[in-house]
Amino acid sequence: MERKQIHIAVLISTLDEEYQNGILSGIRHFCNDNGMSMVVFAAFGNTGNDLSHDIGEYNIFTLANLSRFDGVILVANTIQDADSMEKVIERVRASGIPAVCIDRDVEGMDFIGIDNEGAMYAMMEHFIVHHKFTKINYISGPDNNIESTQRLRAYRRALEDHGIDIEEERIYKGHFLSKDGALAVEKFLDSPLGLPEAIVCANDNMAVAAMNTLIQNDVRVPQDVAVSGFDNTLNARNYSPALTSVKRPLRRVGMLACEKILSHLRGEPMPRETILKTECCFSQSCGCNHERLMHTDEFKRYNYNVLEFFMADIALSSRISSALAECDNIDDYVAELRRFVPEFMCDEFYLCLCDTWKQGLMAEDPEDNDLMHALAPEHYITEGFGETAIVALAYKDGKYFEVPEYPIEEMLPGLLDETNMPGCYYFMPLHFREKTMGYLVMKNSAFPYASKLFHNCVMNIANSLENVRKIICLDRVTHKLNNLYTVDNLAKINNRNGFRINTQHMYDYCIENQIPVMLMFLDMDGLKSINDNYGHKAGDAAIAAMADVLRKVCVSGEVCCRFGGDEFIIFAADYTEEEAEYLSEQIEELLKRKNSGGDADEERRRT
């Protein structure tokens, strides 16, 4: 019997960081080697101070129908928002499938991590024992991050163990972002404690930014201040001075996570918890030079390639933004986006929209649209993706094709089918602030994790989609306002404003060119009697019936209107007396049929 294809879901945020890249590389290679599929649900949270943006990003995790997968890998520390993280954990637990959590020990899941406290303690001991430093400042990550709290605890314990006072002013709380390193150094430089001997950072991003800021302020590294990081990223190793850091086996983490899931599926025993070893790499930023750096020529070639790819991605992002900004309807938007899909170098690409797009936005006739539903804030989706998905664009193996609407619980038609070739899928949210619009799917593309501008491209696609939505809504509003201004609400034909607008040009043309015009005045006999004897609803029905007659006969360029009350006007250009008499006869004939009920009988026969 042929073995069932295995599908692993990966929940992760911020793909373009080296930490995430290393773990995904391990997962990707293990899946490729074992004929498995990995389906990555990727957010880009904590990119700024906009909480509404994070809500829109982290919503992608609600799309993952985990019960349909064979296993799930949660890269916990990449999801910075505590509430979102807890919701994800509950979803993983509720799925009932084998689950591995990376760098956070969660009850009910296998755990892969490192000894964060031991690694940071070893780094602190190097500074205290080897370098004899006593004034050591610290740049931490967020308090709600377990790795951050473990590393900070090691900093405090190392100071205590060596009899050095802990001064809270020497500790800066950041969010693992580059800007935190710069802000921390600015604070340290203004501190009454004076310049520290060393700055220990909870990750490399903050450490490199800290060194940059020190150098910009004429503080030498390591001569004046030593600096260390954590993660031993490529950029940090090749910075000048090269950063002292802690090396962790990221690719091994990803592969081991897959091994754990495979062991569960096969019923083979495997330890629930695995703690991997780390290595302190002492380099130039602390005054040590133990690590061999990249050769200068190799580094130049590497930087050249990075710059070339970066410039190409900038051009792609700019072209996408420019092209989509010109679109004012969904068809043009999709047509423009199609031009860029091959540049993503993917086997498959899908643009999936929430079913709310059908509410006032995708129907052809504005009168059939529930415009207020489309505009009202209470109808925006901020959690989940609705009941069904609309595939506005589908691309596979170089060809575009149609995909019918499907239940959102499927995530993507055929995603988990046995006939589908194994591969790597990336699901990314499309949203404007907290408002969910849909999601993108790519298969077998390096763009999501290899490009620093991938998220920028996705946001351009999302923002342009929101712009199209606003233009459509504005057109609908304008259409309705125009009707209110020019169309009689009861008769559904021109009012005085509409009559003036629709006849002024024709009238001026006829006067200028001495062309005859026809103006016919009509009023209804007995309307007051109808209102008095049968009520105003009956009178309104009579006015509507009169207007219906005029609509049926005015089919050759004539313009009719309700002038007010029971008075109506018909205007026509280049009309003869015979044509006017014939029009009058048609009106009389239709009115007789209306009054006798014959018109209603004819309508019933048609239906």
Shape: elongated
How many whole angstroms does the radius of gyration measure?
35 Å
Number of distinct beta strands: 21
Oligomer: single chain
- Give the uncertain stretches in residue-range form: 365-375, 600-607
Average pLDDT, rounded to a whole number, is 88
Fraction in helix = 40-55%
Percent strand equals 15-25%
SSE class: alpha/beta
Count, helices: 20
Q: Please outline the major beta sheet.
A: 12 strands, mixed
Straight-line distance between termini? 59 Å
Q: What do you see in this structure?
A:
With 607 residues, the chain is of the alpha/beta class. The chain is built from 20 helices and 21 strands. The strands form four sheets. Strands 1, 2, 3, 4, 5, 11, 13, 14, 15, 16, 17 and 18 form a twelve-stranded mixed β-sheet that branches. Helix 4 links the parallel strand 3 (71-75) and strand 4 (99-102). Helix 1 (18-33) packs across helix 10 (250-266), helix 5 (116-130) runs parallel beside helix 6 (146-161) and helix 17 runs antiparallel to helix 18. The longest helix is centred in the last third of the chain and has 33 residues, at 454-486. The chain is elongated. The protein starts with 6 loop residues before the first strand and ends with a helix.
